[in-house]
Amino acid sequence: xxxxxxxxxxxxxxxxxxxxxxxxxxxxxxxxxxxxxxxxxxxxxxxxxxxxxxxxxxxxxxxxxxxxxxxxxxxxxxxxxxxxxxxxxxxxxxxxxxxxxxxxxxxxxxxxxxxxxxxxxxxxxxxxxxxxxxxxxxxxxxxxxxxxxxxxxxxxxxxxxxxxxxxxxxxxxxxxxxxxxxxxxxxxxxxxxxxxxxxxxxxxxxxxxxxxxxxxxxxxxxxxxxxxxxxxxxxxxxxxxxxxxxxxxxxxxxxxxxxxxxxxxxxxxxxxxxxxxxxxxxxxxxxxxxxxxxxxxxxxxxxxxxxxxxxxxxxxxxxxxxxxxxxxxxxxxxxxxxxxxxxxxxxxxxxxxxxxxxxxxxxxxxxxxxxxxxxxxxxxxxxxxxxxxxxxxxxxxxxxxxxxxxxxxxxxxxxxxxxxxxxxxxxxxxxxxxxxxxxxxxxxxxxxxxxxxxxxxxxxxxxxxxxxxxxxxxxxxxxxxxxxxxxxxxxxxxxxxxxxxxxxxxxxxxxxxxxxxxxxxxxxxxxxxxxxxxxxxxxxxxxxxxxxxxxxxxxxxxxxxxxxxxxxxxxxxxxxxxxxxxxxxxxxxxxxxxxxxxxxxxxxxxxxxxxxxxxxxxxxxxxxxxxxxxxxxxxxxxxxxxxxxxxxxxxxxxxxxxxxxxxxxxxxxxxxxxxxxxxxxxxxxxxxxxxxxxxxxxxxxxxxxxxxxxxxxxxxxxxxxxxxxxxxxxxxxxxxxxxxxxxxxxxxxxxxxxxxxxxxxxxxxxxxxxxxxxxxxxxxxxxxxxxxxxxxxxxxxxxxxxxxxxxxxxxxxxxxxxxxxxxxxxxxxxxxxxxxxxxxxxxxxxxxxxxxxxxxxxxxxxxxxxxxxxxxxxxxxxxxxxxxxxxxxxxxxxxxxxxxxxxxxxxxxxxxxxxxxxxxxxxxxxxxxxxxxxxxxxxxxxxxxxxxxxxxxxxxxxxxxxxxxxxxxxxxxxxxxxxxxxxxxxxxxxxxxxxxxxxxxxxxxxxxxxxxxxxxxxxxxxxxxxxxxxxxxxxxxxxxxxxxxxxxxxxxxxxxxxxxxxxxxxxxxxxxxxxxxxxxxxxxxxxxxxxxxxxxxxxxxxxxxxxxxxxxxxxxxxxxxxxxxxxxxx
Length: 1130
Description:
Blueprint: H1 3-14, E1 25-32, E2 43-48, E3 54-58, E4 64-70, E5 73-80, E6 86-94, E7 99-101, E8 104-105, E9 114-118, E10 131-132, E11 136-137, H2 138-143, E12 161-163, E13 173-175, E14 184-187, E15 190-191, E16 209-217, E17 230-235, E18 243-252, E19 268-282, E20 286-305, H3 310-313, H4 360-368, E21 383-404, E22 407-422, E23 434-452, E24 455-472, H5 479-483, H6 491-496, E25 505-507, E26 523-540, E27 543-560, E28 567-569, H7 578-584, E29 589-594, E30 597-615, E31 620-631, E32 635-636, E33 642-645, E34 650-653, H8 663-669, E35 676-678, E36 696-706, E37 710-720, H9 725-732, E38 740-745, E39 765-767, E40 773-776, E41 784-796, E42 800-819, E43 830-831, E44 835-836, E45 846-869, E46 872-885, E47 912-913, E48 920-929, H10 944-950, E49 953-962, E50 966-967, E51 969-970, E52 985-986, E53 1013-1014, E54 1051-1052, E55 1056-1070, E56 1073-1082, E57 1090-1092, E58 1096-1097, E59 1104-1106, E60 1121-1129
Parallel strand pairs: 1-7, 1-8, 6-9, 14-17, 25-28, 34-35, 40-45, 51-58
Antiparallel strand pairs: 1-4, 2-3, 2-5, 5-6, 10-16, 11-16, 12-13, 14-15, 16-17, 18-19, 18-60, 19-20, 20-21, 21-22, 22-23, 23-24, 24-26, 26-27, 27-30, 28-29, 29-38, 30-31, 30-32, 31-36, 33-34, 36-37, 37-41, 38-39, 41-42, 42-45, 43-44, 45-46, 46-47, 46-48, 48-49, 49-55, 50-54, 52-53, 55-56, 56-60, ...
């Protein structure tokens, strides 16, 4: 190995990390003569026609050449060899991550003679076995109607990409059976994924994008950190000519359709504007790109929910039902005896609560609710509300490219400042909501050094930063004093952070809307992600070898104010109705956190890779790669974290040095001294959990050309999955002893003991012993996804191509949650007043985050495409797939999904369709210039006036159609301590077909058969009525204390169909200058799309709401929206 190679390898290993550097393009091929003999030593040069920058190299002894690390753009390729005519191929368009094969056959002649050909319109992927979603180039991006001009919407037009489940974690899309939290985003090769929550960090102005690519399966070893798809965006670079865009977009409800539930149109005022300018600073040497985009939107959002009736507000429950939807017998806990259909000694007569008994605070809460404005019907939802949803943001972007001899230096920076108001956070009444200010930035510097045409080194340094503040609408207002509650926030804390003063969270139970902005308000967090990378490319003979290394360091700082004001819960276990409990002031329990914790989390991730693209024969290319990467277990700067160890049955904390000052007293007060230890005592690291270092990921693929118009490709790879860092932080840092939770539990024998008048009685206080403790598998395995594919691609006439593939994936060691301390369901363990005993008496729930979940995905996809020529392009995709797993996300619950585990001792019971599973998916995009006017088939000779009216028209559109996502039927308020179950028993299928004669399913009649499910019988001691949500005897012979035989995600939700359309008129101002007037319509056919907005319980059986995202591609959209645009390009 030569000194240059050794030096370059050393530089690569000593540099910082490789990021997603596969955003650049490569041209490769073989040079032969007329007899098909290879020509060594031919000079191959490629010229970027926009920047004037060129590269050249000589063919090797096999006649092959490979020009790599080329910026996306338009190129001319020239081949020169003594004794042959010069060959030039023009207008080669290179796109993100492309490996384009251009074989050249030279004709005998003089070098001064030139043979010129134009590039093919359709190019096949003949060089690697990966499935890469077809690149959407700048022209297509510019012409498609995209709601909100959001680049992520482009991903839904790639087979294998579906929307994540509503309310689920992660980014907005799930790719090839991987969780939405495992999609990665790159801008010019820099990691654009927010480490805290897994969504995109910044969103570039789409006018500043050169192109967009969604890579979905089997991508090369250059990529790491995430196991799902890779969304690659390449920013435009300046050229030797000045180019720009000036755009303005207007929306106003005057032009729009009325929503499905609305009697009147929903108010909408939106103004969006964007400016982009790119050009030279020094010709052929230095180029710039600047962009600015902003939005001001005022949109009314809608909700359908349940509020107290006019009678219930006055303590009259004569027309109310119990939690199972049956006749209510409102019990008076201060009276003796039973309350039932046969014995009414302790019932409130006629279900009326006398005014003298009603609690003044409870009455205030009941009257806080808005007045019902619609008939409840069979669903119970009696209130439809409209509330303002505000959004303001602006985003500047800057990029500079500079050529240093044969080397290149580039810098880019973008930030986005966002202010929003969400009216429904915490409560579907629209009376509360939150304000959010979110500032995010991404910056990156990269340098490419060319040691020789066959040896290149790329080095990158990146920086991402996000700062977010959230607070309730009433932040700073002492609501507790207004309601008559005791002081919820100590004066000292309120003085230091006035925004802690706000509404407490009121949990109303029985499907009634809650009150409050959310227990976790206010929220602040600060996330910084440093990223470094290097990659060495060495072209040797038939081998294109790449090696690289990457390193990321994430800092996440967040004060933890969760539940400072308390959560007040009414569940109906006092009277049989939660509003009855509220009217009397009788609480089930109150929880609150004492003091607040500060989290300073840190995490490192690094990896290295080797990849070889080997031209084994003229027709066969093999892709051989391997990657090793490690996600270090995160730690807290001040060691304020802990994890429950299921082996030692102890809570292991990193250190007690920064525990509360009264830590030793707390250990004695809670009787936890013997079950809490430090990591040092057990010989564990300060992260408490260990790091999995055994993460080798092979990647193999092949591409075999069958003639000039067909190719067969295949591939297999292992991909390590990343974490949602906030899941770990929230569950491991914010528990005993660093976040002390109080729980005040009421009792039926004295319901006034824990009430609105006395919510925090010391006699009923427990610390941690009756609240959850959390843990993570102490020696976790790194989650990974195996992915494979087999693809056939064929070039067709008229510049089109068809691609068909089978692909699959299998996820292993995926994260999930379960209760390690699940109660026994055996009468021998029943404890009076508490329920069934738990195995570990010191704790209540012990939520363990394990790596025990798995997934399986299989799909068939077909795609027919035509690349743009003369303004005509299209892409039509169909996918038939099925995704199965045992848990769809590590924590939390998507709408209609299922959280935790039904039976922690039998996790296989949760195997079912993934929350995002969509059996059938059809998508389509396209654009066509109508054949009228100057330069077109009809009217080429029209005069200017006629052409201005009839010429220059074009149409474009997109369509998405999804079959319904699955949903799980759950039990309302399951009392697990009494043997209840989170899922019911299933008596029959439960599905209901659409019946247009009756109305809309999920609105006019239930989404499923309400009688097809029955609660699991609970235990009620002799003489005691069943607890809220429980029955004591099954009508169908099901045994008590079971787990319910109803599976996870067993029924289908509604289908989603949305079509977006644009009509444009182009005016040619002068050469190179175009003005476009544009009308866009999102959900042009006004198709009402419904979603699951809550977990489905067999008490209501309704989806619960209309999909309200205005024109959201891939998510169905709301009512028809018109957008008017003025676009000027030069």
